[in-house]
Design brief:
Elements lengths: L14 H11 L4 H12 L9 H13 L4 E5 L5 H7 L7 E6 L2 H13 L6 E5 L2 H4 L9 E6 L6 H11 E10 L12 H16 E6 L5 E6 L1
Helix pairs in contact: 2-5, 3-4, 7-8
The structure holds S-adenosyl-L-homocysteine (SAH), 3,4-dihydroxybenzoic acid (DHB) and magnesium ion (MG).
Magnesium ion binds next to loops.
Length: about 220
């Protein structure tokens, strides 16, 4: 019998099926659509999470009753809005972004979504900004989606600052298919996987580019 048990990245869903599922489960209101389209309208890379991943983030946060969440990599704030909507009124997302223009566009999208009071964008490199957040913790979840070469640093911070039962989420955990390559960023991404496994109970969900999901031990 063929053993496909560890095969990742295959999908049976054709484009029309994906569109049907989006209409059925993850349809955007005006604020989400604005944030999703925002990179394309502002000369920014359109590298936001997919619509199904975005809604998955929202549901996961709702499932654990999350109130305090940290994101690394804001872009135009699409994933941030999804996550903020998974929190109660008094919940908060701190999102770290080192590109000033991305931060500005994201803040405009948060205002348009009526979420300015529930989201703080912190400008600067993740490795410098995260330590300034320690005192606000422990956090219910950390979502990592910034520079892949530093995922190991971000994952280590999450292991120290996420509460027991809280979540680690990491986009691009397949590293665009280059996870096993002999390069420094690939090695950093492998350390992220292996160190995450030590501090969290983990799985790599086979989204198009992999979503590392862990619950803190
Ligand atoms: N999470 C967003 C997409 C993030 S794209 C969404 O799904 O909607 C990655 C973002 O990380 C980009 O905006 C990029 O400017 C930012 N980034 C890259 N390196 C960074 C670093 N060292 N620190 C903080 N942000 C960084
Ligand atoms: C890139 C970054 C991402 O976070 C992503 O989900 C897709 C692409 C990139 O840097 O190209
Ligand atoms: Mg990503």
């Amino acid at each position: 019998m063929a053993d496909n048990s560890s095969r990742a990245g295959t999908t049976y869903a054709a484009t029309e099926v994906i569109e049907y599922l989006h209409r059925t489960h993850t349809a955007h209101d005006a604020a989400l659509q604005r944030a999703f389209d925002s990179p394309g309208h502002n000369d920014m890379p359109a590298i936001q999470v997919g619509t199904a991943e975005g809604k998955t983030l929202l549901l996961l946060l709702q499932m654990i009753g999350a109130k305090k969440v940290v994101e690394v990599g804001t872009l135009a704030g699409y994933s941030t809005i999804q996550m903020a909507r998974g929190l109660p009124e008094d919940g908060h997302v701190w999102s770290v972004e080192f590109d000033a223009k991305h931060a500005r566009v994201a803040r405009e999208n948060f205002a348009a979504a009526g979420l300015s009071s529930r989201i703080t964008v912190l400008e600067g490199p993740g490795a410098d900004v995260l330590p300034t957040l320690d005192a606000q913790g422990p956090f219910d979840a950390v979502f990592i989606d910034a520079d892949k070469a530093n995922y190991d640093i971000y994952g280590r911070w999450a292991a120290k600052n996420v509460r027991k039962g809280g979540l680690l989420l990491g986009d691009n955990a397949f590293f665009f298919g280059k996870l096993l390559e002999d390069s420094a960023p690939a090695a950093a991404m492998r350390r992220f996987h292996e160190e995450a496994r030590a501090a969290f109970d983990t799985v790599c969900v086979p989204t198009p580019d992999g979503l590392l999901l862990g619950i803190k031990k």
